[in-house]
């Protein structure tokens, strides 16, 4: 079976190291995963005023989440938390009330930082948010990536074999997790 994975890059920066990480993950992932980015940069700031009539960007975001078998968050840590642009996108996806698009979607969280903490605090915040949104999460392995510019090419090439193996293993485990969650929720469909 193949699985459609919608992925979020939590950074809007043109030179984002997390965008580079997302490219590396796509290259190293099993062939059974098909990736589509869910863009966040053109979303207005969410307000529940929009719940009565979502704008096209909000509708497109919810449709993209709902069309995905699994969701992958590749995000930096900003000020020890979730980047505002990504939290805004999650807020959009979670509403209108009762129409939370993340419910029961298998999710993975990974991120890169130049520092040694490797986005661990952001990931912990994300786990609280995704738990509240009833989104199952890959618990292990965890992946806190310290970004070394000599290891990652701009196109997502990974020049260090142990890093490549770690990321490959992460994506294999993520693929297995998505498959298990879907099999449990819709037996017979895969
Ligand atoms: C950062 N950075 C950062 N790094 C980290 O490990 N923990 C943190 O809490 C923060 N906080 C933070 C806040 C803000 C506003 C910025 C701009 C940066 C550094 C950050 O990891 C670095 O800029 C990365 O390049 C960000 O990832 P992207 O945006 O390049 O994908």
UniProtKB/TrEMBL annotation:
Chain ranges of the NADPH-dependent FMN reductase-like domain: 4-147
Gene Ontology molecular function: any one: FMN binding
Coiled-coil regions, chain positions: none
Entry GO terms, CC: cytosol
Protein's recorded name: ACP phosphodiesterase
């Amino acid at each position: 079976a193949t699985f459609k994975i919608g992925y979020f890059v939590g950074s809007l920066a043109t030179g984002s190291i997390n965008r580079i990480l997302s490219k590396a993950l796509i290259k190293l992932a099993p062939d059974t995963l098909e990736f589509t980015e869910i863009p966040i940069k053109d979303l207005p700031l969410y307000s529940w005023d929009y719940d009565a009539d979502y704008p096209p960007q909000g509708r497109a975001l919810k449709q993209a989440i709902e069309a995905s078998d699994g969701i992958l968050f590749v995000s930096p840590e900003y000020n020890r938390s979730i980047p505002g642009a990504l939290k805004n996108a999650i807020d959009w996806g979670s509403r209108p009330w009762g129409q939370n698009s993340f419910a029961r979607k298998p999710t993975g969280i990974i991120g890169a930082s130049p520092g040694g903490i490797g986005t661990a605090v952001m990931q912990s915040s994300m786990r609280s948010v995704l738990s509240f949104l009833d989104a199952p999460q890959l618990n292990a392995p965890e992946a806190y990536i310290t970004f070394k510019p000599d290891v990652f090419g701009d196109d997502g090439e990974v020049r260090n074999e142990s890093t490549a193996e770690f990321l490959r293993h992460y994506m294999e485990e993520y693929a297995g997790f998505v498959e298990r969650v879907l099999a449990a929720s819709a037996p017979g469909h895969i």
